[in-house]
Every structure is written in C-alpha cells, then in structure tokens.
Amino acid sequence: MTIFDNELIWFCVLGGVVSVDTEAAWQTMLSQPLIGCTLAGFIFGNVALGLSVGILLQLPYLMEVPVGGCEVTFSSLGALIGAGVALRLHEQFPEKQQVVLFAGLLTGIIFSWLLGKLWRLSLDVNSYFVRAARTAIDDYRFNMLSFLHGAGVIKSFLFGAGLVLVLSIGLETVLRPVIHSLSVGVDGSLWLLRPVMIGAGLATLIRIFVKKKTLPFAVAGAGLATLALIVRTVT
Amino acid sequence: MSATAFDMVRAVHRSFYIQATFTYERMLALGYTVCLLPFLRKLGASDSEMHDILKNNLKYFNTNPFLSTWVLGAEMNLQEQRLTGEGPRLEQVERFRKRISQALAGPGDNLFWAALRPVSVLLGVMASCISPVAALVTTFVTFNMPSFYVRLSGVIFGYRHGLNVVTVTNFDQYNRAARILVKVGAFILVPAAVLMKTQSQTHEWTAVIAVLLAGGIMYFLLRKGWSVTLNLLILLVGVALYASFVAAFSAF
After folding, report:
1. Which residue range is the domain that position B217 belongs to?
2. In a domain, A43, yes or no
3. Cα–Cα distance between B197 and B201 in angstroms, integer?
4. Which domain holds residue A37?
5. B61 DSSP β-pair partners
6. pLDDT tens for the 252 residues of chain B, in order
C-alpha cells in the first residue's frame, strides 16, 4: 500500500465535507460519527469496522450540544480521524481487530478534544472575513460579501481535508510499529473494549432521555423489549 | 408582495450556509446578511440604502440556524415595505430582529440539537442491525426531513406575516415537539439496547456486567459534571490496564 492512494484522497474529501457540515454549512448529520465513520468504512472497504467506530464514538458524544457558540469537542472530525486510523491499520493487521479498534477509539477521543481547541484558529480566520466584509460595505463593494462568506466554506473544507490527510498518515506511521510489537494475546484480552464503550453510550442516552417525566415511557419501552425477547425465545 | 417562490428557495438555500463565517463577536451576522442580499438587490435598493441595511445587519445576529429562516422571511417582508416607503424604520427592524432571534434560539436548540439529533441517531443505531446503509439513511432522513420543512415553512410564514409573525405563530410548539421527541427517545432506548446486545458477538454474562459497570461509572461522572472526553479516557485506560494485566497473567 502506498502512502497516497485513491482511498486516502476520497477520505480527505470526506474529511473536508465533514468539517464543512460541522462548522460552516448544511448541518445535515453527514458529520455525525455514525454517518461519517460508516462512509469512511465504505471508502476503505470495511463497513463493519467503520460502523463500529461510528456507533461507539457517536453515542457518548451526544452529550455535547453545540449551542450558542459554546466550546465543545470537534467529535465529528476526531471520530473520522479515529475511524481512518483503525481502518488503515486493519488493512495491515487483520488479526489484531481489538487492538486496531482500541487505537482508533483512543485517537478519535484525543483528537476530538485537540481539534476542539484548534477550532479557535478557524474562528480567528472568520473574524478576519467579517472585518473585511465591513470594509467592503463601507466601500460599496457588496458583491464581496458573498465572496467572503464562500471563502469561509472553502476554508472549512480545506481545514478538514488537510487535517485528515496529515493526521491519518502521521498517526498510522507512529502506531504501526507499536501495534506490530503487540502480541495477538493482547488482542484477545481487549475483548472488554466494545462492552465498555456501549455501556458508556447507553449511560449517555439514559442521561439524555430518562427523566422523571419520561420514566413511564422508558419503562413501557423496557416492557415491550422484554415481551419481544420472550416471544423470540418461545418461537 | 413581490417575493416569488424562487426568492424563498434561494433564501432557504443560502440559510444552509449561514454559519460559514461564525464568530463569537457577531455570531451569524455575515451569514444572515448574505442570505438577505439577493432579495435586497431584487427590490432595487439604492447603494446608500443597501449600505445602511447591510451595515445594520452586520452588527450582531444569533439564533438557531434551522429557525433562522423565520427571521429571514419576516425581514424580507419588512425591508420590502420599508423600501416602498410604508414600512418601519431601520432601528425598528433591528429591534424586531433581535427579539425574534432570541425567542427562537432556545426552542430551536432544544428541538434540533438536544432532542431530534439523539433520537435520529438512536433510530440509526437500531437500523444498523438491518444494514449499515439502513443506518445511514435512517439517521439522515429522520433528521433532515423535519429540519428542511422547518426551514422552508419558516421563510414562507415569516414573509407572509412580517412583524405579526410573533403573534400568529406559537414558537412554544418547538419546545413541545422537543418534549415529545425526548419521550419517544425514552421509549425506544431499551429496545435499542436489546437490539445492540442481540447483534453483539459476545453473549457472556461478563460482557453484560462490563456494560453495566461502565455505564454506571459514565452516568455517575456525567452527573458530577465531568467532560465526555475525560470519562472516555478513564474507561479506555481501565480497559487497557485490564488487558495488560490479563496478558501478563496468562504469560506468567
């Protein structure tokens, strides 16, 4: 596998789209880890792993609500980078599934946080665009406004695509020897990873949905699920 | 009334990009101004009128992006009246814009970010048991159908009613919708968890205990106000320590 291949180019485009959907435009859920990571799975030919990383990172980060310009992590791009790392490493170490998943989740979480901090730089560029727009209005160059605003979208795309490119290659290069040095036995003992992450996700969902007023609905849903399980077992 | 269906669709289309130049100082001001620009041109505003309106718009604007079209539609109506010499003064338009955008921000965030997003993700997770494509389509459609409807209806109602949009529309309907969605989320939560469990490869009781233990820790720490990142890192460190302990023990 060469460093630059078609998969990586499409993955960078996806990174740009995810970045735009998160911070600049659309807000169509394309950027949510569940969708972004699954699409990454399609690109690298391993949808199951992409979907796994997506679900495992999506659920806990639902706790963060991006409202009023409050500071949150950049979980959409972070999760995509994590999925990319996992998918690219899995191509080289197919026998170490759990270790690769662990590497993907860990990088996803760390880079969600780091990119959240880096997002301030993007806002500084936006401030420059707004100042330029004020000057353009004073100079009666109203067409400049659409141009500057469009530049905001392009900036966001390049920000996402560039980060995904650099970090995917960089992290893969750093992690490859580490994973190579780990024995297959370690992979087996990491079986706890999925249950723990699913538990974290479910706890987040309970925190979001289950309140005093919604408790009867949760109990009714639990009753329905139990009934379905009994019917399934009997039949 | 001179706004055509094309003008409204164009305003909605531009509203999809309203956050492109978001800043903490002026929030969505430039995005909102750019949404309004084609309609102002169509109204034939002179250069000095355009200068005043755009400068005024660029001061500050913040609301929920999905509901921004309500404000946009109403302002299209007000600017049209103003430019034909019948409407309110620019300061009145500014005051109206400020009030309605503040009134819409809370309900919009409640509905789209705090309620609809988790529900559509949960439905997507359930659909992932069928196929990954089903997960993508379910999440995408369940979130975007309502949000697109709200965007489109917002610009139409806003433009039709102008200043009166606040009196003829009950914005609390969005809070009500959010409350209903949270109930739906609570109802499908356990079935979704059961579906995930039946799809997982491990059926041992230890896995169930791990889910409950990790869930309990996460829930407790979230209640304490710890960040999601820190919680997840703690859990991953726990998993790594357990794995290295088991690996070392079996080697020994």
Report:
1. 204-252
2. yes
3. 8
4. 6-191
5. B27
6. 689 999 999 999 999 999 999 999 999 999 999 999 999 999 999 999 999 999 999 999 999 999 999 999 999 999 999 988 888 999 999 999 999 999 999 999 999 999 999 999 999 999 999 999 999 999 999 999 999 999 999 999 999 999 999 888 888 999 999 999 999 999 999 999 988 877 665 557 888 899 999 999 999 999 999 999 999 999 999 999 999 999 888 877
Cβ B1 vs Cβ A106: under 8 Å: no
Residue B61 phi/psi, 5-degree rounding, is: -155, 130
Instruction: Tell me: do B18 and B131 sit in the same domain.
Output: yes
Residues B191, B232 within the same domain? no
Q: Considering the domain boundaries, does residue A216 fall inside one?
A: no
Q: Which of A55, A69, A140 sits opposite B24 (nearest CB)?
A: A69
d(CA A215, CA B190) in angstroms, rounded, equals: 12
CA distance B214 to A176: 29
| B109 and B87 in a common domain | yes
Token couple for A48: 């199951």
ipTM: 0.94
| A149 vs B17, B231, B240: nearest CB | B17
Do B135 and B245 reside in the same domain of the chain? no
Q: pTM of the prediction? A: 0.95
Domain match, B163 and B146 both = yes
User: Which of B25, B53, B121, B208 is best to mutate for the A interface (most A CBs within 10 A)?
Assistant: B121
Of B21, B51, B186, the CB nearest to A214: B186
Contacts of B126 in chain A (CB under 8 A): none
Residues B76 and B173 in one domain: yes
Q: Is the dihedral of CA B148, B180, B64, B101 positive or negative?
A: positive
CA atoms within 13 A on the CB side of A185: 11
CA distance A136 to A147: 11
How does DSSP assign B98-114, residue by residue? HHHHHHHHHHHIIIIII
Confirm whether A101 is domain-assigned: yes
The total of structural domains in chain B comes to: 2
Residue with tokens 């995509």: A80
Q: Is residue A105 part of a domain?
A: yes
